[in-house]
Structure formats: C-alpha cells, structure tokens
Amino acid sequence: MSQGSRYAAVPYEHGASKRPCPQPRAASEAELFAMSLTVVGSIAFDSVRTPFGERERMLGGTSVHFSLAARFFTEVRPVGPVGEDFGDAEIDVLASRGVVVDDIERVPGGRSFFWRGRYEYDLNVAHTEDTQLGVFGEFEPKLSDASRAADVLFLANIQPDLQRQVRSQCPQARFYALDSMNLWIATARDSLLAAISEVDCVIINDAEIRQLTGESNLARAARTVMEMGPRAVVAKQGEYGAALFTDGGFFALPGFPLEDVRDPTGAGDSFAGGFLGYIDSHEGEIDDLCLRRAMGYGTVLASFNVEAFGTERVASLTREEIDERFDQLREMTNFDILPASAR
Amino acid sequence: MSQGSRYAAVPYEHGASKRPCPQPRAASEAELFAMSLTVVGSIAFDSVRTPFGERERMLGGTSVHFSLAARFFTEVRPVGPVGEDFGDAEIDVLASRGVVVDDIERVPGGRSFFWRGRYEYDLNVAHTEDTQLGVFGEFEPKLSDASRAADVLFLANIQPDLQRQVRSQCPQARFYALDSMNLWIATARDSLLAAISEVDCVIINDAEIRQLTGESNLARAARTVMEMGPRAVVAKQGEYGAALFTDGGFFALPGFPLEDVRDPTGAGDSFAGGFLGYIDSHEGEIDDLCLRRAMGYGTVLASFNVEAFGTERVASLTREEIDERFDQLREMTNFDILPASAR
Predict the structure, then answer these.
(1) Model confidence over B226-243: pLDDT tens digits?
(2) What is this structure's pTM?
C-alpha cells in the first residue's frame, strides 16, 4: 500500500469535530512511534521569483520543506490543514518519499495557504507580495495519537498560542524545538515567551533573536533566550550559516559555499528538518556533539534546498549525496584536515 | 637602546628627497630581514563613538592595528607618513612592543591622517563623520632596504597605484597580499585590477568582493578574483567571521563570540595582522593548512581588537591569551571535539 493511499483513506473534516475520535492502540503499535518527529506548520503553495527564474504555485510551506529534509533520518509527520486545491499529486510528493501524511487535513471548500514573494539580486531578503492564510486562518491543531507520541516535536513558525496547544498535546517528547518570526515577537510577545519557556531549543533568525531580546549582541541575546528555559539556541544567519549556543559552549558553521543558488525559499525550514531529523535519529543522549552534528546536517539540507526552486532539489536528493556533502562540510571547517585536493 | 630612540634617530624629510639614500648593507644584516613583514597603510588618529563610549584622537589607522597584531608572530615594519601631531608617545606604543618604526616618516609641518566615525547600536556599520588625509594626501612610498627585503608584504587599503609602486619595490617577498575598498573599486578600478593581478592574496570585505566582480554569489565572486591572479581570497564578513577561498577548497570561521564588543574599528586590520603575521612566521610551504591556521589567528586578533576602544586591548595582549583563544576557536568549529565543559 502506498502512503498516498493511506492519506486518502482518512477523510478528515474541518472544525471542532474534524478529527476522528482517537482509537485505542495496542502498546506495541504505540512503541513504533517512539522514534518519530512531528512538525506543525504551514503546508502551502508558493509563487516565487528570483533573478534566476520564477515558478507559480509550487508545493511549499514550512512543514513541507522540513519534512522532505527530515525524512532522510526518521519518520516525520507534518500536521496541518490544506485546501481542496491541494491535490493527490502534492500529497504524493511527500507520501511517496516516506513522509507520513495522515495528519494533513484537507478542508472541504478551503484554500491552501499561499505565499508570493520575490528576491533581489543578492537573494538575501524575501519581499512578500501576497500572503493568503486560507484554511490556516482557522487552524486548530489536534494531533492524532501517532503525532502525539512524537519523540521530537517541531513547532514551526505559527501563532505562539497554537504552538503551546500543540506542545501540551505532546507530553512525552524528549526534545522540543520552536521557530518564530518578527510578526509574533511584535504582536504576541507574552505568548511567545511562554512558548519558548516550554521548549528545549529555539531555532530562529539572528535578527529575530535580537528583536526578541532587545540585545544587539548575539551571544548575549542567545544567553537571554536560554535563561527563559531552552538549553540550546540556533541562530540562523542566512548565507553566513548558523550558530549554536548551549551551556556547554558555542559552535558555528558557515553556509555551504555554492556557486549556483536559485531560490532560498525554505532554506531555514530544510535546515530545521535536517537538524531535528538527525537529533531524532540519534539514539543516545542529545549532548553537544549530537547537536553539532545536527547543525551539520541542517546546513547540508539547507544547501541542497537553495540549489533549485521550491522542493525540486531536496525531493530528488539521496542519502549518499547528503553524507558526501556532510563530509565536505567537516573538511571545510577543520583546521587540521586539508582539502583532499591539497593533500 | 629603545626602539623609540631608534625612530627618533632617523630625521626623515618630506617630498621627493625625503628618504635618506639607502646605505649598502652587509649580507648578514640583510638576512636578518628575511623573516619580516612590511605593511603600507594609514597611521592615524581616530575619534570614535559607539553605544559603549567614545574616544578622541586615539592612536589608529590600518598599519597601527595591523602591526600591533602581527608583532606577536614576526618582525613587522609599518611604512607611512605621520604629522607633527604624532608624538613620541604614539611611536612608543608601537616601538615598545617590538614594532620596527624606522619607516614611519614624520613630515615637518604636516598633520596626521584623521578619521572620525560612529557606530549605531548593532556596531556593524561605521558611519564616517570626517576624514582628513593630512600628510597621507601626498604619500609617495619609498621603502628602506629593510622594508624592501620583506618576506611578506601587505598592501593595505591605499590608492591602487601606490600599492603597485610598493609592490614593485619588494621583488623578493614570498607572499603578497592587499586590501581595498569601495572607493578604489569605483574610482580606480583598472589600477586595482592590475594591483590584484600582482598579489597572492586579496583580503577584502565580502560586499566589496561582490562590488569588484559584479557577482552577488560570493563563491563565484571569489573565483573571479582568483582568475585575476591571486591564489587565495579572504572575504571578511564582520561579526560573521571570514571565509577563505583557494584552489584547494573553502574554509570559513565564525567571528569569535563575545558578549562585550566595545569598538569594531580596526578589527579587519587586526585580522590581517594576525593572518599575515602567522604566515610570515610559518617556515614551510604556504599551503592550505597554513592559510587555515592563519585564518584562525586573524579571527583571534580581530576578536581581541573589538573588546576595547582603539588599540587598547591588543596593545596589552599576551601571546598566551592568543593561543588560548585560538584553541577555543578550534574547539568551537569542530564536529568531533566537545567543549571542555561538556566532556
């Protein structure tokens, strides 16, 4: 049975009664979910224009980019609503690649989240031209038992009260992470601070860490966030890479150097997917070494993401390509290992 | 004999006849210079205001920051003019720390280069409020035999034709590097391209590499510069650190994370001083491993530079502090070595 048909067999409905009543599960089945990753965030269509081309209504959204990256490491379950415009072809992009689509809810009569944006020459800033929330505007996350049983939970960039609702439905995860954005920092600050206090890790753009804390110094800003509860802060820095702050120290990776960058949309989400996917696949303690390697996988997945429009590159990626680039990245950041060509 | 009095014993004059006629030197003396580093750039007074304080007419300028960083690794000789306002106290900051000040020329009746700038809250952009070239406006570099005998030559950010003049006076260096800036890219582009073609390494802000090449992609921009002649390109990225491009590969280091940054003025020059100072001290081939370690020392010296105003921190620095931070930096960028506190 393909995973696409598994999705099709679950006729979710919208509203308070939209979820089928949870069925009792055998313990042995529940245990199967003990190594899985749930992500709650947008599932969308994106129209994007960059200096290197444009695409209309590509499959996109945080959960999509995240899931396509994380699926290389673990079982990943995106949770969220889509509209009737979201067809089996879109579902199949995920399902045929092992993403568990049971908790993607197709809302009758609804329209999917839509984003239109463009990038200038330097690709660093996304200029939003249109955002239509569609079914996402009335999203009330209710997780299936399988999604609740997540080992790792990622609260993508949604309203912080929704993040907290989802968090409360997943009491037994061993690692919680969230992302946020300037909108929620400005309009729902107290809720966001409460949400942050309930997670292990904040993954956020460096400008937003500064905005959140009022600290222009990144090291101080990260420490301020850690004092709210999280034990790790990942500052995403666009083309400059990402930095990890923990009690144990500091770690940073450059963006993987690419001569051809076509579309940065979703890079941060692919980063988070590689980062948390690796963490979920890691059997031992989630220590600093685990987090550093996760940074490496996040960086690698983000780099593939930007090589083509939308999900094109990550959808066609192989684990071998990931591991090869991971090894290249290690080599590029090591003082003592020479590049192969110079040995 | 203090080095301060050595400076005072050389009454240079201004203009075409300003340099004493080079005296023949014994071969044995010339050999003493075989491991030395010459830098040609500004020697200045800086007035700086940041959110953390302000200082009037501090000792500054590229050659000063560069030399105070490079002196930990090798014999360094700044070349350039100062005015009568540049007193023995300023000279002594350099000379008492082992910087060879013989080629600092005090111009009778002249005023030293002066820069006034301020930084906003985020410390990333210097806003220039005043620049007075003073004696630098008529600078015609003529190097002493000792400076000509440099093993490594740094052509700091001066007019590219002057860079070429200096380059032609130092035929036997084993490593040539230059810096430049948006002004010369815009106003003296052909000269700059010629100057670049004559060096081994370009050390420049990433925005300026893009401006120089018209390539917004940094990896392509660096390759374009290497196609002009240099075998290495260092892209300085401010708080994000620096990236090294060579034929052998790519290497990058984050800025050293600091919770207290007081004044970024001179950070790039201290970077170059640590980078080229280490290279000059390196006895073997200047290969990729040497360049990577040099990136580490550059990063470390830049990080100390910004901890206090002007030259305050680097002037009081010890080699032990440098090596300790270098080891911390290695640890912060390694996938496999855990931070000491987490072992």
Answers:
(1) 999 999 999 999 999 999
(2) 0.87
